[in-house]
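tool_call predict_complex ligand=dihydroflavine-adenine dinucleotide
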Amino acid sequence: MAIEVQKLLLLLLPLFISIFPSISLEDGFVQCFSSNTPNPNATSQIIFTQKNPSFKPILQSSIRNLMFSHKSTPKPILIVTPHNISHIQSAITCSKQQGLQVRVRSGGHDYEGLSYTSHEEEDQPFIILDFSNLRSITINLEDETAWVESGATLGELYHAIAKASRVHGFPAGSCPTIGIGGHLSGGGFGTIFRKYGLAADNVVDAVIVDSHGRLLNRTLMGEDLFWAIRGGGGSSFGVITSWKVKLVRVPETVTIFDISTRVVEDDDDDDSVITFMKWQDIADKLPGEMFLHAVMGIENVNSSSSSSSNKAVTISFTGLYLGEADVAVSLMSENFAELGLQRNNCKQMSWIQSVLYFAGFSVNSSIDLLTQRNQTSRISFKAKSDYVTSQQSIPLSGLKGLWKILLHEDNSPLLILTPYGGRMSEISESESPFPHRKGINYGIQYIVSWDNSSDDEKYLEMMRRLYEYMTPYVSENPRRAYLNYRDLDLGVNRDKNTSYEEARTSWGSKYFKNNFERLAKVKAAVDLGNFFWNEQSIPPLI
Ligand code: FDA
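tool_result ok
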């Protein structure tokens, strides 16, 4: 009898399949989401599948690195643009149910595009949770804090602070279109970090949706998870919806200056060479109020004798002093006379004007420019990072080799050299996952950009050669790197089963040094199943 029933079922199977065709991942997700959402009619305003005409513009809206915007770049099967926290919780529940990976995007500035694409060899379907609708900012001057949603940009935060007060600021990065979510969870440094520390050092509370869909603030998540998301990268641990940050007091008047020099490479007594050698020794020892970074690059010069175009190495020193110009000048003449800073090199202004300046705007422009979310030019780029420690600065012979490389390239990278010291040296290496503190003289960012997508491989190779050349001059065991300048050349997780040890030795200890172990233990405690996975997410360590 049982065999007869089985036969009948087999005969009827094609009929069942045609009546109930297998449901696609997209449709399954949408159905699940609608049934988990109080107002299912709103789903069409929240979820955008590839068929939706808004899918492409939303996907591209905050992609900064065009290297990950090619036709062949893996795309999400759909984008969720939550309007409130319940949408995030439903998206997590439904992604789990459908076996989908989740990429979380706040400002889209990830150097390797990890917030909106996948580099996995096997096609693993994924969705994007895009925070562009969650960007409210509430400033509270009474306790000098602000609550900021992850989708707000740094520019929007700086703008909101400046509207509320002339004497408050926040220590974070220079580019106003960077998203709060990625920046704060990866560290975040800027022009006033020598005085106040990283953006992550100034976070006092946060709200996260974890892999079980629970909504947790600092008290509920506990100090381990709260520690991990302030520099360990949010995407390994959950979806951080908002942050409470401590505002810092800035003086009403700050001073900026910019001094550019051109290097004569074959003259060891060249002034700019002497200035740079001194900068390497002194920049991290100046008081925390003084930020003086150096940018090294190549410029074309017209040689008057032959009228042919030649190239020269230039080094620009740009400074921000938290105080008046006269004090800045005397501080520099006492400590760094080689720079030759004069009063007429200096401009006094408010802190928010200095933000405009470092963002590349005229200091007299409207601060509303800081709230434009699409102003950064969109180009293909590759960057890498290094740290120079107090044990050695780069010797002249090393610099000469570097300049030779830069001069040889038709499109050479820039080196942005950022001095540490000040407040950064007072915070211990394990205070947060970001370990680059005491003993760091300066950080280096190498960055090259290009227009033509057919040049991708050429420039990736060039950057790898430059990085190789710099090996003897920078930190070792581990060779340190900055998480927010993400570099997949350091190594990637093969898949969800990549072990703690594999990840630690390839990329983990470079970003986090010994903090990697604690991060992996936190990961095991909050996401043992490794739901929040990406190419450089922290593996769980039990
Ligand atoms: P994006 O949205 O791409 O996210 C970056 C990472 O964080 C991804 O892994 C993403 O999944 C995760 N993430 C984002 N939102 C999350 C959330 N809500 N919850 C959990 N995970 C989340 N850095 C610096 O320190 N100082 C500087 O001055 C600059 N300047 C600068 C200029 C330019 C032009 C670029 C492109 C980048 C920088 N950066 C920088 C680096 C920047 O800090 C870094 O790329 C940040 O991670 C960007 O954060 P977004 O939210 O914009 O990126």
